[in-house]
Amino acid sequence: MDPVRRPRGRPRKPVLLEPAALSPRRGLHDQAVERLRALIVVGTLPAGSALVETELSAALGISRTPLREALKLLAVEGLVELRPNRSPLVAELRPDAVTELFEAIAAIERAAAELAALRITPAELDRLRRLQAEMEAHHAAGALAPYFALNQQIHALIVACARNAPLREAHEALHARAEIARRRALDSRARWDESVAEHRAILEALYARDAAGAGRLLADHVGHTGTALIAGLARHAA
Amino acid sequence: MDPVRRPRGRPRKPVLLEPAALSPRRGLHDQAVERLRALIVVGTLPAGSALVETELSAALGISRTPLREALKLLAVEGLVELRPNRSPLVAELRPDAVTELFEAIAAIERAAAELAALRITPAELDRLRRLQAEMEAHHAAGALAPYFALNQQIHALIVACARNAPLREAHEALHARAEIARRRALDSRARWDESVAEHRAILEALYARDAAGAGRLLADHVGHTGTALIAGLARHAA
DNA sequence: TTGGCATGAATTGCATGCAGAGCACCAAAA
DNA sequence: TTTTGGTGCTCTGCATGCAATTCATGCCAA
Questions:
Q1: Which residue of A has its CA nearest to B67?
Q2: Per-residue pLDDT averaged across B30-59, rounded?
Q3: Residue B164 is nearest to which of A73, A100, A112, comparing CB atoms?
Q4: Could you tell me if B222 and B113 are in contact, meaning their C-beta atoms sit under 8 angstroms apart?
Q5: H/E element holding A184?
Q6: pLDDT digit string (tens) for A181-214?
């Protein structure tokens, strides 16, 4: 028998970059997914750049194994492009891909809005109304960043109210790429005003439990957002 | 002594001009995804069973590393349920999950049909017509298995004709779970006849490039299939 | 008996080693 | 000069080893 009890704590090695501090007990691969997604969305890892496993794992303070798992999951999300025996690339977001992306989001949100109109509870309607009011306040104040956050919450809440897990997961999977597009082209005051008005109409349709109307309005809203973004991207490129 | 260093892995079989398209030589993790998916769909790995990494990796003849990557991907597809620090489980398919699943598939296929009605080429329409004829022949002959295969091909082709990668990927992701439900409840002659008729109507709407009609018909068709399957599952459980 | 805690086996999660694929660079031939 | 073949290096893909976690068992006390 070993008289010396080994110390229970794992030998922590010094972590160079940000050590994923104080996160809930999830695995490193899961944290890596989130951190990498954030880095890609905000552009710290620019589109087209190679993701060399040894470099990235060192930068994240983890080993290659969980990193590889994370890269595979990000590839499913379309944020990363895997190549056999080659370094993965941060996926490029081409204009036609943005078109398809917003077509798909519109399709999913339309269906979600139709279901939500049938299934949403009064409490959820109330929460939507409060979010809408808050969002309009940010709009009035010209606060873009919080506006976007609220806007995103509202869309997510409507999808959640559809009570359909596959639809919600598909929606979440597309969200990061849409966010990339939004960040690249967040301009046009006119579109902003229009968007707020469209949100009002959607909310009213949900209150009226008008499934077809809510679906159509939301799909159109997403479609308009998409075309506006593509226009913005085109301006950006020029 | 052995002067010739032998490779540690499997002996490479001599490959003579094997078309890479048919044998893409992908990584072990990718192959593991397909093999596990097939094993789960046909029920060799029954719902609720624990997937112990060491056992599974030995059974598949691979190590735990690619197996773990495969399990993570199957979890995204909803075929496997991951639990922190516990063995993954083959996901159970509860009746309400089947309902949601077919709601989601109907939503995606409706959107796909609407887009396909606008974008489908004459050649694709022709191919659809031939597939439909072949499927009807199997129906007339009472050949269930090839009928199902053709049926799937038709649905996949319609989605492909929408020219929308995210929609197609979402559709594919849901396919395996739907297949599980189908295999559990493939009965009801009456529903079979009805389904063939519905396919005819969908095809006609596509020919007429009636986007709304094609979308509605296809969504209803998938919805009917879902309710029939749930009824079948209920019979099965009883 | 029963509740609580320690202990050990089983298994996951992560790190790391190693072989091979792919690429760059260079030399030699055309 | 262009092309072809070789050579070395880098990086991926996979296997394996080790620590940490979880669960089951058993012991002790109430």
A1: A69
A2: 96
A3: A100
A4: no
A5: helix A165-184
A6: 988 876 677 788 888 999 999 999 999 999 999 8
Q: Is A174 within 8 Å of A104 (Cβ atoms)?
A: yes
Give the protein-side footprint of strand D (Cβ within 7 Å).
Answer: A 8-11, 50-54, 64-65, 68, 82, 84-88; B 9, 27-29, 62-66, 69, 84-86
Contacts of B73 in chain A (CB under 8 A): 72-73, 76
What domains, with CATH codes, occur in chain B? 28-90 (1.10.10.10), 95-237 (1.20.120.530)
**Alpha-carbon gap: A62 to the closest alpha carbon of chain B (Å):** 16
* Contact in structure between A51 and A88 (CB atoms under 8 Å): yes
pLDDT digits 0-9 by tens, A152-163: 999 999 999 999
The answer to whether A144 and A193 have CB atoms below 8 angstroms apart is no
Query: How distant is the Cα of A31 from the closest Cα of chain B, in angstroms?
Result: 13
Tokens of A11: 């030998």
- Is the pLDDT at B1 greater than 80, yes or no? no
Answer whether residue B15 shows pLDDT above 50: no
Q: Return the closest-CA partner of residue A217 out of A95, A116, A100.
A: A116
B-chain residues near A110 (CB < 8 A): 107, 111
Alpha carbon distance A98, A115 (integer Å): 26
Q: Are strands B80-81 and A86-90 parallel, antiparallel or unpaired?
A: unpaired
What pTM was computed for the model? 0.86
Q: Using CA atoms in the order B168, B169, B170, B176, what is the torsion angle rounded to 10 degrees?
A: 100
Count the alpha carbons within 13 Å of A23 in the hemisphere toward its beta carbon: 14
Across the interface, which of A27, A108, A169 has its CB nearest the CB of B84?
A: A27
User: A136 to chain B, minimum CA–CA distance in Å?
Assistant: 30
Report which DSSP code applies to A90: E
- pLDDT at position B24 is 57
Picking from B26, B100, B107, the nearest residue to A107 by CB comes out as B107
Measured distance CA(B55)–CA(B71) in Å, rounded = 13
Tell me the nt nearest to B27, Cα to C1'.
D13
Point out the nucleotide closest to A84 (alpha carbon to C1′).
Answer: D12
Q: Provide the residue type at B82 as one letter.
A: L
Give per-residue pLDDT as tens, B185-194.
Answer: 766 777 888 8
